[in-house]
């Protein structure tokens, strides 16, 4: 049985701020060497050249090295998954997952959060957007489930990944080795990397069968209800964090999930919160959460039909502000209105992650 999990959300007060993590360690809430993963939002542009992700990554890893006994090489293997872009009211923050001594955690036979992390095989530039990447991600997800002690895919409620995208350097590397790539548009490769990864998660969890190459990033009927996929320039393989529930692990936290059917589907967020074990009235208000919600994690996507609930929008036609930023701000506002807290995890590029035009939602509750 894996050790129980502590989950805490901390603010990021500047681009290189990791003081929230440092305080948790200094106050004895968690131990540096027990940190399993960090999932956070940084304040950059969310694009290929969003270096705030790298700055946050460095700051948090420096704290783990300085306050723990792991070497820099060992700390480098800890998945720190950063999603860039805090458009609208979204606020930079990080959610930290760490194991705790079982003797210090509440004992219960009820389902409680367990976390498994894994790194996939190296994903080559020519793999992105193709079945080879689907297979490598699926293998990594299965490894992470084993690490979490999760045997039934139905107990997985959230899979957060970070995968490589294409850059000019990696495109040229593939060409030098005699391979082509799925696209030479580096920003588009971000969406394709995310969508291919989501299919790998769906395959690993039995949500879909292995897709043919021509269905990747094309057949929007294929999706995972628990995948949240980000990509960036800072790694060459899939960092995978599987979060689910295990009976008997103990601890205070439980996770649940649902999906948003469209960008305005606040009910989908409330459904995820209810799934995490928080009792709510029929028409809930964020005041009903009473401090029990740790965080929600969402993916979002501009509806390819160019409308929401029958009303036309111009996100996909706007040449001034990319639709990534517009839909992120929109869904971030919806999520913050539900939780009463702008520090919510909302990430864009959700093809194959939840229904088309919507997205998956995971919620973690502190059940005391």
Automatic annotation (TrEMBL):
Location of the active site: 162, 230
Binding site for Mg(2+): 301, 350, 353-355, 358
Binding site for substrate: 53, 83-84, 194, 230-231, 328, 347-348
Region of interest: RU C: 253-368
Keywords (A to Z) from UniProt: Hydrolase, Magnesium, Metal-binding
Residues spanning the signal sequence: none
Annotated site (Important for substrate specificity): 324
EC number: 3.5.2.1
The UniProt record lists the keyword Magnesium: yes
Reaction(s) the record says it catalyses: barbiturate + H2O = 3-oxo-3-ureidopropanoate
HAMAP family found in the cross-reference section: Cyc_amidohydrol (MF_01989)
Protein name per UniProt: Barbiturase
Biological source species: Actinoallomurus oryzae
Taxonomic classification: Bacteria, Bacillati, Actinomycetota, Actinomycetes, Streptosporangiales
């Amino acid at each position: 049985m894996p050790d129980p999990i502590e989950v805490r959300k901390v603010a990021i007060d500047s681009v290189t701020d990791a003081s929230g993590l440092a305080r948790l360690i200094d106050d004895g809430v968690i131990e540096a060497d027990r940190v399993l993963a960090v999932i956070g939002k940084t304040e950059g542009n969310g694009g290929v050249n969003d270096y705030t992700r790298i700055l946050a990554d460095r700051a948090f890893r420096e704290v783990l090295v300085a306050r723990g006994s792991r070497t820099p090489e060992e700390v480098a293997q800890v998945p720190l998954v950063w999603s860039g872009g805090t458009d609208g009211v979204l606020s930079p923050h990080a959610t930290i997952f760490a194991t705790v001594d079982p003797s210090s955690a509440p004992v219960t036979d009820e389902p409680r959060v367990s976390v498994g992390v894994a790194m996939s095989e190296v994903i080559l530039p020519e793999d992105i957007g193709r079945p080879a990447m689907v297979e490598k991600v699926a293998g990594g997800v299965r490894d992470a489930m084993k690490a979490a002690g999760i045997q039934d895919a139905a107990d997985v409620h959230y899979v957060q990944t970070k995968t490589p995208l294409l850059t000019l350097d990696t495109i040229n590397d593939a060409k030098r080795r005699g391979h082509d790539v799925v696209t030479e548009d580096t920003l588009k490769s971000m969406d394709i990397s995310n969508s291919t990864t989501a299919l790998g998660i769906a395959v690993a969890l039995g949500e879909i069968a292995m897709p043919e190459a021509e269905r990747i990033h094309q057949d929007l009927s294929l999706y995972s209800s628990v995948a949240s996929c980000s990509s960036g320039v800072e790694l060459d393989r899939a960092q995978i964090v599987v979060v689910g529930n295990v009976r008997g692990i103990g601890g205070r936290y439980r996770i649940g999930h649902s999906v948003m059917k469209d960008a305005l589907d606040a009910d989908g967020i409330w459904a995820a919160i209810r799934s995490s074990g928080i009792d709510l009235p029929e028409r809930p208000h964020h005041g009903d959460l009473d401090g029990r919600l740790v965080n929600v994690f969402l993916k979002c996507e501009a509806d390819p039909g160019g409308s929401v609930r029958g009303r036309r929008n111009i996100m996909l036609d706007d040449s001034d502000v990319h639709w990534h930023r517009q839909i992120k701000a929109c869904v971030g506002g919806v999520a913050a209105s539900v939780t009463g807290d702008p520090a919510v995890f909302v990430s864009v590029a959700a093809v194959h992650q939840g229904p088309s035009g919507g997205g998956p939602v995971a919620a973690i509750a502190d059940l005391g």
